[in-house]
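Revision sheet: structure tokens.
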Amino acid sequence: MNFSKILHRFTVTPSLPRELAGLQRIAYNLWWSWEPDAIELFTRLDPELWRETRHNPVEMLGILQQTTLEGLKSDEGFISHLAMVDDKLTEYLTAKTWFDKLHKGEKNLKVAYFSMEFGLHESLPIYSGGLGILAGDHLKSASDLGLPLVGVGLLYRQGYFRQYLNIEGWQQEFYPENDFYNLPLHLERSADGAPLSFELDLAGNRVKAHIWRAQVGRIPLYLLDTNLEENSPEDRNITTRLYGGDQDMRIRQEILLSIGGVRALHLMGIDPNVCHMNEGHAAFLALERTSILMEDRKLKFSEAREAVKAGTVFTTHTPVEAGIDHFPSDLIEKYMGRYYRSLGLSREEFLGLGRQNPKNPHETFCMAVLALKLTGHANGVSQLHGEVSRKMWKNIWPDLPEEHLPLTSITNGVHNKSWLSREMARLLIRYLGTRWLEDPTDAGVWRRVSRIPDGELWRTHKHGREHLVDYARKRLKEQLCQVGATAKEIAVADEVLDPDILTIGFARRFATYKRGTLLLHDTERLARIVNDSLRPVQIVFAGKAHPADHQGKELIRQIVQLSHQERFRHRIVFLEDYDMSVARHLVQGVDVWLNTPLRPLEASGTSGMKVAFNGGLNMSVLDGWWCEGYRGNNGWAIGRGEVYDDLDYQNEVESRAIYDLLEKEIVPLFYDRGSDGIPRGWVTCVKASLQSLCPTFSTDRMVQQYAENFYLPAYEQWQKLNRKESLLARDLAQWKEKIQRLWHQVRIDEVEAELTQEIMAGTKIPVTARIFLGEIPLQEIAADVYFGVLDSRGAIVGGEIVPLEPVSEIDDGSHSFRGELDCRFCGRHGFMLRVMPRHHELGTVYEPKLVLWG
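Predicted:
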């Protein structure tokens, strides 16, 4: 008998006395996760249960005995604390925000932010690492700033794996089930109380999904769930695991996230005018928005595409093509065949959207390429990553120099309130006031760090180190108990690490390019450093390798095996099951954060930013964000950004650089104490780090940049192209078709410049050009000069664009253009003439193959 068919279901929720009703309101808004008073309130209920539930207030309230809850009614201190936190939440949700004050005229802006994972808190395990943590911090800052934004993701039944290590140090995985009814989630329902649901066609299969909501301050995050009885077992599994399964599973997850996400929002009456794709996983959403416009306004694909492109933002996080989703054409045909035919596209046209070279039948369908072709605004996540991304994708725009490709950068940040220790926050409030909480981007406020007495700053960070050591010892004992270690081995856990010595942290995903074992390259030299009798050092490691990454697992095993050796037993620890809770303790307690990626494979990295807010210092290869953050006096750079052809040689050189930095600079600076025990030089470095890094590397700055550089301009373009039944979108598509048809007529007949062999700096050089336009009107052409210093290969480096103005028409249908080159720098220079189409409302427009050089 199928008992599920006759099972009657219902949900039990905590029965809270009226006086404690505010607990439930607070528990279901993840604002509590970055509000210290709220965290303290829940800890106060039952500290041990708070820890056992992984800091999940909803689950804890469900477990607490009714007698305990009843008893709290008469606890005046607790009731007063609850009222204070409840008032804080109300004040937070109703206060005027940055967006209200600066952009009050843009209330019609509606942004939807799509991501495969969101790292909001360890109690909601639907994230794996940096991409998800960044997405979670993005939502939190969007809430603080008051942006009109919603999040869209998937609700995984098992999420990403939990990690434990066997006695040999090999990573093992397990997948506990997430109980959605005991998480800070609401199931979205219709007016009659039934769960809201929508359907997707996946290869002829009808898949149904429910919509859950996690409230992140002011921001709703909608999470899609296919684990429904109406679905087949294979379709229920779509939302089982994050990054689990094969390519077939991955494409189904991405269709659900993107196409399903747009439909879920539409079902709830939310029609965003700007959609932000956090990585290429959500690229299909642009096609769904195009399909909706085609149907609603009877547009052709080319017309609707122009309107959607204007209102779409894409952020790439991956500096290597191998890390981006590529699907074979047969899998695309299986899942998207019916869909693209409904858009009026042929197989070749559709596959071409996902290829750098649309005519190459051997090229796989790349989600990042699809995103880049369907977006109006694209960026990498650090300045260096922007450069790397332009090199990666330059073949999409073969007619433009790399620095002028439509792919810029917005450097990542961190949500400081989520990662800052309470002790450090109190110290900053005492000497900086509270303005840094309201606006962490104000560099003037952070300059006041100089006012903090050295002794207070040193003692505050020392408390963080003490908490980390205590936490690491408890975690290590739990790890040893789970693998059946002896009583003697478990007892040793109480003696590992020392709260008074220099502590280095290394915690991240154990991908091989991050080189988690670079510090262990010379174990004899490392042993001398960590066991120095007068100036010892200790290291705390943590991190997960992907279940299929056996090389990453081997790196973890090597670290664990080394930590078992007698000479390292008290100085090196590996903490298993790296999550946001472990990360908080580490970034709040380490003195030095070590980062050793192979340049330029770290797109950004954010863990070191979290360390900076807590008074720790960074020691990193010059990659990702550290290229922008390093100032020479606020941490240490490993090398100078060199890239070697021989990996073994590079590892040798950079491992020695790490040991040299430790022996000659870092360790002496940490232990050089005054008569009062304060390392003045070290504290000076910490202050420089706080002053230079904190105002720049916050998600408040990052989200403000997205709002002002991308969201608001995208909204304005969306409005232009969609008003009057998408009249301008129709016009733009038709205009592009005309330009493509006539472009072959355009030619550059002559370019002249008043050049001599040597030109004095400051000279202005007149340039004239004669251009034949054919049937294209003069006002639909933009002519300019690409001008700059030449490198050793004779190529222009970092060139600038100098516009040319039309001067006169010549009898044969040509036009004369003129401009001036300003020679501000010395050296060998060069220039080229560039001709591009110009739209009467949208200005210069770049389309592949619609650029003429001469």
